[in-house]
Amino acid sequence: MSEYSLKFSEDPIEESRQRTIDEIHQFIRSMDGRPLAVVTLDNEQSDLWDSEGTIDYQDIYGRQIISQISDGSTETLLIRNNEGLPLALAALNSVDGWQGIGIEKRLRFEVARMFQNDETEFE
Q1: 46: Cα separation from own chain's centroid
Q2: Phi and psi of 37, rounded to 5°?
Q3: Number of H helices and number of E strands within the chain?
């Protein structure tokens, strides 16, 4: 019978974080060179975006924003909070329509730096 060896992670939280960063980075690369809309939420919307409760403000605001920017030329979207940190990314896919990815609070500053490295300005 074959022997199995188990590999225990030193830091499963760090590995999970890195996988998430890699996924976000891949999503950003898929947005590269495509027409981008940047939407900044106001103070109240930014607070509600991260609130937990019976109302899913991320879904509500995301759908409203997508309907407003769907103009036939915009293909990618960056939603940011009132501090300029990214909350969500979306890209238009010819088969599946708009597909998005949310940015966890703990990763927002790092993702903002990814965009700055791509010459995107944040306030």
Answers
A1: 14
A2: -110, 135
A3: 4, 4
Write down the pTM of the prediction.
0.81
Q: Say whether pLDDT at 122 is over 80.
A: no
Distance separating the N- and C-terminal Cα atoms of the chain: 60
Cα 62 → chain centroid: 11
Q: How far apart are CA 33 and CA 51, in angstroms?
A: 33
Contact 88, 62 (CB under 8 A): yes
Task: State how far the Cα of 19 lies from the Cα of 14, in Å rounded to an integer.
Answer: 9
The CA distance from 91 to 16, in Å, is: 24
Write out pLDDT tens, residues 27-71: 999 998 999 999 999 999 999 999 999 999 999 999 999 999 999
Are 78 and 32 contacting, i.e. CB atoms less than 8 angstroms apart? no
Q: Which element (helix H / strand E) includes 39?
A: strand 36-40
